[in-house]
Amino acid sequence: MADMMTDNLIETIAAGLTHASRTPLYEQLARAIADAIRRGDLAPGTMLPAEPDLAAQLGVSRQTVNQALVGLARRGLVIRRRGVGTLVAEPYVEQPLGGLYSFLRTLLAQGRVPSMRVLGYRLTVDDEASPRLEGRPDGLVWELGRLRLVDAVPFVVETIYLPESCGVRLPVDRLAVEALYDLIEDVCGTTITHAEETLRPVTLEQPDAALLGLPVGDPAFLIERVGYAGERPVELRRSLIRGDRYRLRVRLEGESLTPADDGPYGL
Question: Is the same domain home to 203 and 218?
Answer without folding.
Answer: yes
